[in-house]
Amino acid sequence: MKESLHRLLDLQEIDKEIGTLERSKEEFPGEIDRLKSELESARKSIQETVERVAELERGRRAMEGELETISQDLKKHQDRLYEVKSNREYDALQLEIESLGNRKEEQETGILQSLEDFEDLSTKLGEDKSAFSQRESEIQEHIDELESKLGSVEGDIKGWMTKRRRIEKGVDAPALSSYDRIRRIV
User: Fold this and answer.
1) Are 107 and 120 in contact (CB under 8 A)?
2) Model-level pTM?
3) Hey, what long-range contacts does 45-51 have (CB within 8 A, 24 or more apart)?
4) Do 100 and 70 contact (CB within 8 A), yes or no?
5) pLDDT tens column, 104-157
6) How distant is the alpha carbon of residue 125 from its chain centre?
7) DSSP 169
8) Residues 6 or more apart in contact with residue 95 via CB below 8 angstroms
């Protein structure tokens, strides 16, 4: 009887191990999916930042092109100042030159702001890429580890089941039956 109780305790330890492995088999795929989702989210964030940097660059180039056009128009209007013959034409031309000067100033301010935003975002992008690269390798290492464990879980369960069957043979049938019934309830 005493030997049978010791075997039941061994059986209980084996069943705990099998239970832990079974839970791992259920939890690991979810954890792997969560980690992959985290990586994909970080990748999307970086891609959005890359697109925003490109958008800022395109916007700045467009503003520079417009600034060039405004500068050329301003130069033409200033050159025409010497050709006007009436005060009315002169005043109208002066208003146009002032308007173009204001537009030019606005474009220059916009370009400077765009350059500042571009540099800030480029710096952030570099930092984010570096952090992502490091985090990606950590996560991939963890995923590989979980997949490896998941692959070995089935073999481990089979090994524990083999031990369990060997130990069951040494347990009295009524005690084993009671043990199994209690285990199913709990």
Assistant:
1) no
2) 0.66
3) 45/128, 46/125, 46/128, 46/129, 46/132, 49/121, 49/124, 49/125, 49/128, 50/125
4) yes
5) 999 999 999 999 999 999 999 999 999 999 999 999 999 999 888 888 888 888
6) 13
7) T
8) none
